[in-house]
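I am hoping you can look over what I have pasted underneath with an eye to the fold:
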Amino acid sequence: MSELSGYGMKAAFDGTALVVTATSAVARGALGTKERIIPVAEISAVRFRPATLLKNGAVTVQTSAGITAVRFLGKAQQSGRALYEELLAASGVDPAVEPSGPLANEAAVTLRGKVEALERAKERTAERAEAQRRQFSSEREEMTAEWNAAAADRRAGRDDAKAQKTAEAAASAAVVAAFADGTLTEFRKTAEVPPEVLVYSRLHDLLDAAAAHAAKGEIVDEERLLRSAAEVARVDGGRAARKALTARIQRMTAERRLRVDSKFLGVVSAENGFSQVGRKGGLLKVAFGEKKVTVYSDRILTASEVQLIDQYTSAQVYLDGQELVTTRPTLTRMALLAPLPGSALIPGLALQKKEKADSRQGEFQVGGRGWSYRVMVHPDQLSNPRAIAEQINRHANEAADRAAERRRPPAVKPATPVPPAADVLTQLERLQALVASGALTQEEADTLKRGILG
C-alpha cells in the first residue's frame, strides 16, 4: 500500500482503489468533495511530474469524470514516484498516454447537472409558453374578429343615435328660436315639438295669456302668469329655458305687450345675514325682512306677491341705531411696551385697544292699503333705496292726482242766449247727451232738468 502526503491533500493506494483526501479548504474546493475514491478499473491515464525548485510535483490520474492531480513538495518526491509506479502497474495503462480534460469536481458536476436540468426545464417551459402563446394568439384572433364585428354594429348604432340626436338637437333649437321670435304658435302648426322642449310651449302659452291680461290692464293676473312662467322655466327647463324666458319677456316688454306703460325703477336688496353678523357681532340681534323688492312705476314685486302703486302707496327709508367706538388699555400692551418697571400706564394709555359696535339698522319700507313690505338694507348703502322711495312717492302722488281728476265733475259751459222755447229744448238735449256719454249721472241730470224747467 502506497501513501503520498501531498500539498493540501494526501493519497493512499491499496492496489484496488486510489483514495484522495483533501486536507485544506482550497484542496477541498478543487476536488469538490473532502474525499474521492477512484477504482483502478476507471483509470485511463497516469502521469508523474517530478518536483523542482520552481514547481511542485504532481501525480495526475485521468478517469471518465476528469483528471485528479495530487501535488506534492520535493521532500515527497520518492513517495510520489512510488505511488505513480503502483498506479501504472495496477491499471495497466500506457505510460505514454497523457491525461487530458477538465479537472474532476463533484460539486461542479452536481452544479452542471442542476444547470442542465434547469436548462431542460426552461426549454420545456418555453415550449409550453410557446404553445400557450399560439393558443392565445388563435383565441385573440377569434375574439378580435368578434369584437370587430360587434364594434362595427356599435358604430352603426352610434351613427344612427348620433343622427337621431342631431335631429333632436336641431328640432330643439328650432323650438327655442321660434319661442324667442314669438312664432311658436305657427311653428307648432307645421312641425312636431319634441317632448323634452314642451316646456317652451308651456312658456309660450303663459306669456300669451300674460300679454292678454296686460292689454286689459290686469296687472295682478299678468304678474301671476309671469311668475308661473319663471317657475316652470326654473323647475322643468333649466338654465337655457330661464335665459330664453328672460330674453322673451324683455322683447315683449319692448314691444309694449307686457308691462305696458310700466317703467322699471330699480331693485332694493336686503343685507345678507353674514354681513349683519360681521358688522353687528354675534351677540346682537340680526333682523330679517323681504330679500328683494322689484319696483316699477305702477307695481311692486316681491318673491310671491304683486301690489299696485296707487294714491295710498308710500315709501320711506329709516336709519336707526349708532356706531360706537370704545377704547381701553390692555394688560398685554402695558406689559410688553413698558420701558421701565412701574411705567406700564404710559403705553397702556397711548396705545389703547379700540372696539367698535355697530347697532345701525337701515330699513326700506313701502306699503299701501292692506299691505306693507320692509327690506333691511345696509346702513352705508341707502342712496339707491332713498331714490327708489322718492320715485314711488312721486308716482303715488301722480296716481292721486289722476283719481281726483276722475272724481271732479265736468265744467258746464255757459248757455248761448236763444229764444226761450229753443233754449229749454237745447239744454234738455245737451243733458241727454251728457248722460249718454257718461259725463253726468242720471241723478245729476234730473236735478239740472228740474232747474231748467223751473
User: Anything to note?
Assistant: The domain at 2-104 is CATH 2.30.29.30 (PH-domain like). Residues 46 and 95 are 7 Å apart (CA to CA). The chain has four domains: 2-104, 143-260, 264-322+359-407, 420-453.
